[in-house]
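Attaching the record inline, Q. Sequence:
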Amino acid sequence: MIKESEEQREVNILLCEDDENLGMLLREYLEAKDYKVDLCADGEEGLDAFCCGEYDLCILDVMMPRMDGFTLAKKIQEINSEMPFMFLTAKNMKDDIKEGFEIGADDYITKPFSMEEVVYRIEAILRRVNGKKNQDMNIRKIGKFTFDIQKQMLTCGDEQIKLTTKESDLLTLLSNKPNGLLQRDVALKTIWTDDNYFNARSMDVYITKLRKILKTDENVQIINVHGKGYKLVIASEDSL
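Structure, as predicted:
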C-alpha cells in the first residue's frame, strides 16, 4: 500500500480561491491530510506566490478578481509547462469545462463538492505525474491479488486480468482505504463527474464485475453500505 502520509508531507499546493470561507475550509482540510497549502485570494496574488515558491500542484478557482483562473493557468504554464493544475468553479457549462481542458488542466471540479472528493482527485493527479518516478506507488496488494494501477492489471498467481478504465478507477478508490467507506457520491463524481441515476446504475454494473473478479480470493469482498457506499473488505488470514 502507498504510505500516503509520507508522500503527502512532501507535496506543496498553491490554492487560489476568492471565496474566503471555502478557501480556508479547503486549506485546513488539506493540511489535516498532511499537505502544505498556500492560499491566495485572487489570480495576481496567486501568480506572485507561484513565482516565489515551489509547488507540486495548483488548484485554481476559475472566477477570481484581478486575474481569472484560466489566465493564471496560462501564465503558470509559461513559467513551468509541466506544472499540474486543476480548476474549481461554480460553472458547469460544457464550453467552460472544454476550455479548461484545452488549456491543459489535469482535472476540473464543479461546486459544490466534498472535501474528500478533492483529495481523491489530487491523489489521482499526483499518481499520474509521479508514476514514472515512483513506480512502487502504483502497485497494491489486495489479498492474494496484486493490483498494478498504471497497467490496470490484476494478478493472482499465474492469472492476469486486464481491467477496463472504469474498473481500474473504482478499484483504485476502493483500495485507497481498504476496510474503509468509499462514499457513493464521491465515487460517482470522481469517475463519472456526475452522480445522476444513469451513472449510478453504470457504477453498480462495474461493482458487480469487480466482485466476480475478486471472488477468487474468499478473503476479499466488496460490500454495500446501505445508503452510503461501498467497502473493500480484506480479511486477515489470522482472523479466520
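Confidence is low (pLDDT under 50) at residues 1-9. The chain is about 45% helix and 25% strand.

More tomorrow.
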